Each structure stands twice: as structure tokens, then as C-alpha cells.
Amino acid sequence: MTVVPLNTETEVRAFVALCLKTRTVSKLAKVMPDWLRGPVESHAPDLVELRETAEHAEAQATKARRDYTKALGAWISSEAGQ
Fold first, then answer.
1. What is the tens place of the pLDDT at every residue in 21-54?
2. Which domain holds residue 81?
3. Cβ-proximal residues to 5 (8 Å cutoff; 6+ apart), any chain
4. Is the overall model pTM greater than 0.85, yes or no?
5. Residues 51 and 36 occupy one common structural domain
6. What is the count of structural domains for the chain?
7. 56-59: long-range contacts at Cβ-Cβ below 8 A with a sequence spacing of 24 or more?
């Protein structure tokens, strides 16, 4: 197994650039494993807050969709029962 050094910003950036040969930046952001996210965020700390904000917004959206689905189901059931 080949180990890629991810110690410097240049090494991290080069490895991430290689990852983009098989996926988009959007896909990489969604699937980036912790072992890669750590070095990326250590060299780009402003990304931490942005990622956390995005994750929080996604969690809120998931909850809102769940609440909507539940309410829609309840509404349909109450209409069907009349």
C-alpha cells in the first residue's frame, strides 16, 4: 500500500487535486473521509466553520422534510377519514 504524505499544505492540495480526477468538488465535499478532512482543514481552518454550517443546515433540512412528511401523512389520513 502506498502512503501519501499529507504534512504540508502543498502535499494536501496536490492529493486533493488528484482526487478531483475522478469526482467533482461537490462530490468530494460530500464523501471526504475524516483522514483527509483533518489535513485539509488544518491548512484551511476557515473551511471548518463553513462545513459545520452546511452540516447543521442539512440536519435542519432533514428534520423539516421529516416533519413535513409526517404532517402531510396526518393531513391525508384525516381527510380520508372524513
1. 999 999 999 999 999 999 999 999 999 999 999 9
2. 46-82
3. 11
4. no
5. no
6. 2
7. none
